[in-house]
Amino acid sequence: MKKIVVLRLGHRINRDQRMTTHVALTARALGAEGMLLVSSDKSIEQKISDVNKRWGGSFYVRSDVKWKCEIKKWKESGGKVCHLTMYGIGLESEINAIRDIKDLMIIVGAEKVPAEIFAMADWNIAITHQPHSEVAALAIFMDRLQKGEEHLKDFKNGKLQIVAMRRGKKVKENKNLKHL
Ligand code: SAM
Q1: Is this structure's pTM higher than 0.90?
Q2: What angle do CA 128, 134, 138 make, to 5 degrees?
Q3: Domain assignment present for 79
Q4: Does ligand 1 come within 6 angstroms of the Cβ of 109?
Q5: Residue 21, domain extent
Q6: How many helices (H) and strands (E) does the chain have?
Q7: How far apart are alpha carbons 23 and 111 in whole angstroms?
Q8: For residue range 96-107, what is the model confidence (pLDDT) as tens digits?
Q9: pLDDT score of 177
Q10: Residue 131 Cβ < 6 Å to ligand 1
Q11: Does a structural domain hold residue 165?
Q12: CA distances from residue 1 to 74, 138, 154, 155 in whole angstroms, order as listed
């Protein structure tokens, strides 16, 4: 997998702030290079840029995009599109084919998803056929897509880096280890 981008549809500024932030944090932590947001919500961009400063990496949030032209552009450049929806085909039967894709756009909705998305996507993939959440669907899908190897991704130039501990917390801050 060369590049993964998440397209977040239907963000409602006064209702989806937390959920959309969690979509971005999940996409970032599990290896996507950025999130395209269909609404103009600069606060999400700011939040994620603060996370990058603190924990590293260069994950981007580009807001106020037009989903139709982003999908078209992506496909014209050879990328493929996977829409996560409970109405789709079960993940198991398609995951091997999707793993072979170099550039993958993953679409998650919020409110009702336009029917056109189902037609434009190369795959409509269900993580069970029950309604749950875009964050859960994205996390399971990205983990299965990368066979759990997303943990190998490192985040350069962050102020902080976690040192894995069986108990307690340890954070590396520049050169010193600081017990929290
Ligand atoms: N009611 C909306 C609709 O019917 O289009 C969807 C609301 S759902 C809470 C928000 C998003 O979570 C969906 O657009 C989809 O991307 C994701 N999602 C929820 N359940 C899912 C499932 N079982 N499989 C895959 N994605 C799911």
Answers
A1: yes
A2: 75
A3: yes
A4: yes
A5: 3-155
A6: 6, 9
A7: 14
A8: 999 999 999 999
A9: 45
A10: yes
A11: no
A12: 15, 16, 16, 18
